[in-house]
Amino acid sequence: MAGSRPGTAPRTTATARVRKALRRAYRRLRRTGVDYFRGDASDWLAFGVLLALCPLLVVLNIRQPVWCPPTALVLPILAGAFLLRPSSLVLLYAAAAAGLSVESVVHAAERAASGGPGSYQAGVTPGAALVVGAVGIAGLLLAQFRSRVGVPWRRGGSMLFDLRERLRVQSQIPPLPAGWHAEVALKPAGGQSFSGDFVVAARTGQDGSVLEAVVADVSGKGMDAGSRALLLSGAFGGLLGSLPPHDFLPAANGYLLRQEWEEGFATAVHLALDLDSGEYELLSAGHLPGMQMCAGAGRWEVKEAAEGPLLGIYDGAKFAGVRGRLDRGDVLMLCTDGMVEVPGRDLSEGMDRLMGEADRMVAGGFRGAAWRLIETVAKDVNDDRALLLVWRA
Q1: Which of 89, 196, 366, 373 could bond to 218 as cystine, CB 3.0-4.6 Å?
Q2: 200 has which bridge partners?
Q3: What is the DSSP letter of 305?
Q4: Residue 210 belongs to what H/E stretch?
Q5: Alpha-carbon distances, residue 304 vs 250, 264, 287, 317 (angstroms)
Q6: Each residue of 244-263: pLDDT tens digit?
Q7: pLDDT tens digit string along 98-148?
């Protein structure tokens, strides 16, 4: 155009791009800052209390260095690692570092005024600074980890407690008609809170005349298996009653295949019990057979059918079942391999021992027997354990 100088348009375009980039960065910084510092009143209260604790500890160290050493500053740092957001934690660390500097200057002045070493051992030594710094780094890593996984700050522990309680509630047997009783016992490996074994149960049928229960064992143990067990227990609980009994295990198998877990297989046994007639069917997916005590014959029987493939191995798997009947006085026992597995021995030996211990409890009644059997047979086993007892009085 007339009157324009060469190079003006490119410079104008470059300036506009820089301005747009700065505006985008500013908006992103504002959004990040709002999200980073957003919190409820209790968050800010915790931050304020811990921040005020730093100068208080500094004053106590200056006045009473014997009772309040410089390393006392790790107390608010540790608390902040569990209670605060990473952004607030950095500010707390800055206050702690400033407190250490003040303590160092004051103790240095005291030593200079006394004309000798004075109370150097009560002052800020290099070791004390290293301890506070190391705890601060560990706390920041912990806070950043919680931030990445999305654990809601100090409520993370209650969230895990809720998840554990949900797994426990899902394993409860629904109320049964008169004459029927059932118990479930679950014990994780190594005294942990989460187990890879779980039980889900529901009353199904038009009038609730059928008890369906699933005893499952997820591959692995501990927290990794427990997280998968929590997900599967919710899915299996939703499938119970939504499908005919013979369709449950194929649907559960398809669900596991869709998860595409690296270690995603599981074993399960599905019980469908008619509460009117006592007739039942067990369908197995690579699981241990059921065990029934026949009161009339006075002996235990292993209800073994075709074992069936594991869940989550291949599509289109077929699962066979075995039928039976519970008459008055009969007991049906289902468990996971942690109850009967002993290194170097066959599973049948462990099952014989379990049935023998259960047989000793017949005279005293089966109430509370599930937990007594775990304590007697598999108390110190380093594996997840689950046991379901159903009996007809």
Answers
A1: 196
A2: 214
A3: -
A4: strand 210-218
A5: 20, 25, 10, 19
A6: 999 999 999 999 999 888 77
A7: 888 888 888 778 777 776 554 444 567 788 888 888 888 888 888 777 766
User: Using an 8 Å Cβ cutoff, are 89 and 67 in contact?
Assistant: no
Buried b (16+ CB within 10 A) or exposed e, 307-327: bbbbbbeeeebebebbebebe
The 10s digit of each residue's pLDDT in 312-330 is 999 989 998 999 999 999 9
pLDDT at 18: 65
CB 283 within 8 A of CB 243: no
Q: What residue segments make up the domains of the chain, in order of their start?
A: 21-150, 162-392
Question: What is the Cα gyration radius of the chain?
Answer: 32
162-392: CATH homologous superfamily?
Answer: PPM-type phosphatase domain (3.60.40.10)
Buried b (16+ CB within 10 A) or exposed e, 175-191: ebeeebbbbbbbbbbee
